[in-house]
Design brief:
The protein has about 260 residues and is an alpha/beta fold. The protein folds into 2 domains: about 1-90, Translation factors (Elongation Factor Tu (Ef-tu), domain 3, Beta Barrel); about 100-260, Nucleotide-binding domain of ferredoxin-NADP reductase (FNR) module (Rossmann fold), CATH 3.40.50.80. The protein has helices spanning about 20-25, 70-75, 110-120, 140-150, 165-175, 190-200, 235-240, 250-255; strands at about 1-10, 15-20, 35, 45-55, 60-65, 80, 85-90, 100-105, 125-135, 150-155, 165, 180-185, 205-210, 225-230, 230-235, 240-245. A hairpin with a 4-residue loop joins β4 (about 45-55) and β5. α3 (about 110-120) runs parallel beside α4 (about 140-150) and α6 (about 190-200) packs antiparallel against α8. The radius of gyration is 17 Å and the shape is globular. About 45% of the residues are buried.
Length: about 260
């Protein structure tokens, strides 16, 4: 069992937990995720590791309350224990010096983007982070994103903070003014689809993290099946990151409707 040592509400429905997990903290890399289970009969739920502190032996998880399992997790308080925490799982992000990297994170997708932003900066890249949400209140982790970014562009649907418009408008603004060598996008599937379509038009290599479609996290259930480059892949064991220009987002969106 893993003890919760800190809890913070980032917005009304988004909670950040710091959890004791020394071995995971030591071995995790950007892009890795864990499987969480609350209660002996709880559902296995995957969450990307937002950050880790090796000295303290903790990892940070950002959880959005969207269903029964996430609700149970969000009800836990400091001092409580998570029944099971398994990881790190998945393939780590390809981190190297590309040049200028645009990190496009939407909503809660900013959380799994954070360690990638940090790692890309430490690898010597110029990092431009474009973060987006429907309203100002739903923008999360801005301070932490700014710490590792050369520039931050904030987009809100209603214009209540930053610039008004979708995340694609912010990404295109950057691409049109300077050479972008790589783009990484994490967020709702529909958002990643349109970011991928945009960057393909400009021939910018793009990686999409499809972690939102995972269920079991070990390749057993098949729920995260996705078509990439005409071949079937499983997000949890083959990803969670793929060439965004090869992902069949339309098929993915159709399958996601089954979970509505």
């Amino acid at each position: 069992m893993n003890k919760i040592v800190a809890k913070e509400y980032l917005s009304e429905r988004v909670v950040r937990f710091e959890v004791e997990a020394p071995l995971i903290a030591k071995s995790r890399r950007a892009g890795h995720f864990v499987i969480v289970r609350v209660g002996k009969k709880g559902e296995r739920v995957p969450y990307t590791i937002a950050s880790a502190d090796v000295e303290k032996g903790t990892i940070t998880l950002v959880v959005q309350r969207v269903g029964k399992s996430s609700e149970k997790l969000c009800r836990l308080e400091v001092g409580d224990h998570i029944t099971d925490l398994v990881g790190p799982l998945g393939k780590a992000t390809d981190i190297e010096k590309f040049g200028t990297v645009v990190c496009a994170g939407g909503g809660v997708g900013v959380a799994p983007m954070l360690p990638i932003i940090e790692a890309m900066k430490q690898a010597g890249n110029r990092v431009i982070s474009v973060i987006a949400a429907r309203t100002k209140e739903l923008i999360i982790l801005e301070e932490q994103v700014r710490e590792y970014s050369d520039e931050v562009v904030i987009m809100t649907d209603d214009g209540s903070y930053g610039k008004k418009g979708l995340i694609t408008a912010g990404v295109e603004e950057v691409i049109q003014r300077e050479k972008v060598d790589r783009c990484i996008t994490i967020g709702p599937a529909i958002m990643m689809k349109f970011v991928a379509e945009l960057t393909k038009k400009y021939n910018v290599p793009t990686v999409a993290s499809l972690n939102t479609i995972m269920v079991d996290g070990t390749g057993m259930c098949g729920a995260c099946r996705v078509t990439v480059g005409g071949q079937t892949r499983f997000v949890c064991v083959d990803g969670p990151e793929f060439d965004a220009h090869q992902v069949d987002f339309d098929e993915m969106l159709m399958r996601l409707k089954a979970y509505d």
